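WARN  no MSA supplied for this record, continuing single-sequence
INFO  ligand: zinc ion
INFO  echoing inputs
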Amino acid sequence: MEIDENLFYDYERLLQRLYEKVPKPASSGERFELPKFQLHYVGNQTIVRNFREVADRLRREPEMLQRYILRELATAGNYDQNGGILTINTKISSSTLTQILERFVANYLICPTCGRPDTRIIKRGKTWILKCDACGAEQPVKPF
Ligand SMILES: [Zn+2]
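INFO  complex generated
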């Protein structure tokens, strides 16, 4: 049987074109950029003006992020859904909040297998799973 040279050539060329169109995987040197909270203080309260934006950037429910932060601070607060603003009932420095956010990102956002932030938290009963959309890995995480 004869091989159709033209067909083979076209196939190779098609493959090449496909490869050119497929976006290249992000290099491992690419770092996740931590969003920054915008804070101001009213009396003894800390107001996080861009709380919903930060949660959106992390692709996490603001309510989940709120619960984590208030628990870490062992204080009370209130998330205003309409304004997307978190009010914390005590004065918290920007660096303290950044550290808490870094811990949240390390434990509940970054995939431990591939290091990418394209993850979701799936709740199965009392178990929480960090599921990575980039590599498919599943990692149990501590519920809070
Ligand atoms: Zn992954």
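Residues 111-144 form one domain.
INFO  checksum written, moving to next record
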